[in-house]
Amino acid sequence: MDYFSDNVDYQGQKKAEVLYQVIMIAFAVIGTVYGFYTQRFSDTLIISAAGLVVAGLVCIPSWPFLRKNQLKWLNTIMVPAEEAGGKAPVVDKSNVSRFL
Questions:
Q1: How many CB atoms lie within 10 A of CB 24?
Q2: Rounded to whole angstroms, how far apart are CA atoms 38 and 55?
Q3: 3-class secondary structure for 53-100?
Q4: What is the pTM of this model?
């Protein structure tokens, strides 16, 4: 099920942002040139809207190429109920300061 994960890493977010900008600028330039050639502003808008759809399909889902550098999270350290004074298990925060 890792293939359908919805977690995009930080480098993947940067790639998606750059890819979005490149796609939008390319479609805007192509749309402007084509609209100027045909002398119809609607052609410019349609091509730019198509660029928005393509950019959305490429950048919004968390594709595997956007999830190559996943962060390794620390495991939660649980204290048994006996050590917590009979309460429910709690997180031991004594060793958290070494990571901050």
A1: 16
A2: 25
A3: HHHHHHHCCCCHHHCCCCCCCCCCCEECCCCCCCCCCEECCCCCHHHC
A4: 0.68
Residues 68, 12: Cα–Cα separation, whole Å = 7
Integer Cα distance of 7 and 20 in angstroms:
18
Residue 27 CA from chain centroid, whole number? 22
Q: Which tens digits make up the pLDDT trace of 63-95?
A: 888 888 887 877 776 666 566 565 655 555 665
Long-range Cβ contacts of 18-25 (<8 Å, 24+ apart):
19/55, 19/58, 19/59, 20/55, 20/58, 20/59, 23/51, 23/54, 23/55, 23/58, 23/59, 24/48, 24/51, 24/52, 24/55
**Residue 9 carries which DSSP code?**
-
